[in-house]
């Protein structure tokens, strides 16, 4: 029974690490001409754990704050 629990913990840790590496990516900010963003609603979750209405608004936040915010997943946080 202890062996089963240990295997579960190890597989959970591996899955979490893999999920983080595979799903986190930089937004493609070069495709947007700011200051305006399209009004489409296609939410993304940033690595700052904020939900942005779309990738362009995330890019605006990056340019305003100078922080390196990645997209951790499509959809709200």
UniProtKB/TrEMBL annotation:
Source organism, top-level taxon: Eukaryota
Biased composition (Polar residues): 9-24
Sorted UniProt keywords: Disulfide bond, Protease inhibitor, Secreted, Serine protease inhibitor
A cellular-component GO term for this protein: extracellular region
Domain Kazal-like: 23-77
Signal sequence annotation: none
GO molecular function: serine-type endopeptidase inhibitor activity
Region feature (Disordered): 1-24
Subcellular location: Secreted
GO biological process: one example: spermatid development
SMART domains: KAZAL (SM00280)
Reported function: In the male reproductive tract, binds to sperm heads where it modulates sperm capacitance by inhibiting calcium uptake and nitrogen oxide (NO) production.
Protein name: Serine protease inhibitor Kazal-type 1
Source organism (scientific name): Muntiacus reevesi
């Amino acid at each position: 029974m202890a062996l089963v629990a240990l295997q579960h913990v190890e597989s959970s840790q591996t899955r979490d690490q893999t999920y983080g590496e595979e799903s986190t990516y930089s937004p493609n900010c070069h495709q947007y001409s700011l200051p305006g963003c399209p009004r489409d609603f296609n939410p993304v979750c940033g690595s700052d754990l904020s939900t942005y209405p779309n990738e362009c608004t995330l890019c605006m936040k990056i340019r305003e704050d100078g922080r390196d915010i990645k997209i951790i997943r499509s959809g709200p946080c």
